[in-house]
Amino acid sequence: MLNIILFGPPGSGKGTQAVKIAEEFNLLHISTGDLLRNEVKTLTPLGVEAKKFMDKGELVPDEVMIGMISNNIDEYAGKVKGIIFDGFPRTIPQAEALDKLLEFKQTSITKVIALEVDEEEIVERILLRGKSSGRSDDNDEATIRRRFNVYQRETSPVANHYQQQDKFISVKGIGEIEEIFEQLKSAIEVLV
Ligand code: AMP
């Protein structure tokens, strides 16, 4: 399997690029943000609980996220060509759990590709997205900055975790969508 983690801060373009990559390489796209928003929309107990964290720009607890990913991997591993993870893992315990879950399915992460975008660009982009996304966490600058701080504190160590496995690369996440996609495509083509 070709298993890619698309990494980077909120608003770095992971969702947009993951959809294009999934289509290009015929991969299953797993976005934990989308999965959670679906739970929120359908008012499941998990969704009601998760919403409290999402609205504040905080991370949903690891146990919840790991359970959610575990169900997906159980269902799809071996049946798809590969997976593109978007928004997961976001903490070291999530990364360790993901490595174990994949190992159990006799596969592993092939590469982690980070989109590099600075904080001011992030805030500007998410506020713009908020005008049409309908996401409450996209409309308040303080919440956006909290999400960026949470990323720096809890998520950026995940980069080191995969650097130690020699699986981490990054590309510049500023520019035209197609231009960034071409760079991601070249980085992935050599892995196929
Ligand atoms: P996203 O759409 O990826 O920006 O995610 C939106 C929100 O969902 C985040 O701000 C978190 O509250 C929550 N979330 C998504 N993925 C995760 C994850 N892997 N771990 C914890 N919380 C998550």
Structural notes for this entry:
A five-stranded parallel β-sheet has the order 2-3-1-4-5, with helices on both faces. It has helices spanning 14-25, 32-41, 45-56, 62-76, 92-104, 119-133, 141-155, 157-163, 177-189, and strands at 2-7, 28-31, 82-86, 111-116, 168-172. Helix 1 packs across helix 9 and helix 4 packs parallel to helix 5 (92-104). The protein has a single domain, classed as P-loop containing nucleotide triphosphate hydrolases (Rossmann fold). With 192 residues, the protein is an alpha/beta fold. The longest helix has 15 residues, at 62-76. Helices cover 58% and strands 14% of the residues. The protein contains nine helices and five strands. Bound molecules: adenosine monophosphate. Adenosine monophosphate is lined by residues 10, 32-33, 36, 53-54, 57-60, 65, 87-88, 90, 94, 137, 147. Adenosine monophosphate (AMP) is lined by residues 10, 32-33, 36, 53-54, 57-60, 65, 87-88, 90, 94, 137, 147.
Q: Topology, pairings included?
A:
Elements: E1 2-7, H1 14-25, E2 28-31, H2 32-41, H3 45-56, H4 62-76, E3 82-86, H5 92-104, E4 111-116, H6 119-133, H7 141-155, H8 157-163, E5 168-172, H9 177-189
Parallel strand pairs: 1-3, 1-4, 2-3, 4-5
Helix pairs in contact: 1-9, 2-3, 4-5, 6-7
- What is the rounded distance between the termini? 9 Å
- The CATH architecture name reads 3-Layer(aba) Sandwich
State the domain count: 1
Strand count, sense and barrel status of the largest sheet are:
5 strands, parallel
Helix percent reads: 55-70%
Give the CA-based shape. Answer: globular
